[in-house]
Design a protein that fits this description.
Papain-like_cys_pep_sf, alpha+beta, 4 strands
């Protein structure tokens, strides 16, 4: 069973534990703000880690403590950091990169390398 794009920082604040199959995009700004930067995560029950993707790459942003706590609620020890679709720092399309990442990770046949 595949799930669609779903999550917000607000949802993470209220949801106690990550589901076995779950992915989502999180905007790092407050709910009333204009939006600053988006990151995403992917939890596949076949992996022994939760994947965290930041389009900036190279750990430009550290994983915020409440997001890290939520990712660890999956019961997995590791958080895999992926920056395979790095974007230019001046770009405002981080949300689009996150959507593309989740689409490709859930449907590998759609990757441009296939």
């Amino acid at each position: 069973m595949k799930r669609g794009l779903e999550a917000s920082l607000l949802q993470i604040c209220y949801q106690k534990k990550m589901r076995q199959i779950e992915n989502g995009i999180i905007n790092l700004d407050i709910a009333t703000g204009p939006g600053t930067h988006s990151v995403c995560y992917y939890n596949d029950p076949n992996n022994n880690f939760v994947e965290y993707f930041d389009p900036f790459g190279d750990y430009a942003y550290k994983i915020l403590p409440n997001i890290k706590k939520y990712l660890q609620s999956s019961g997995k020890k590791e958080i895999g950091y992926n920056s395979s679709f790095s974007r230019h720092p001046a770009s405002v399309k981080c949300g689009y990169f996150c959507m593309k990442y989740i689409v490709v990770v859930t449907n590998p046949s759609l990757s441009s390398g296939s």
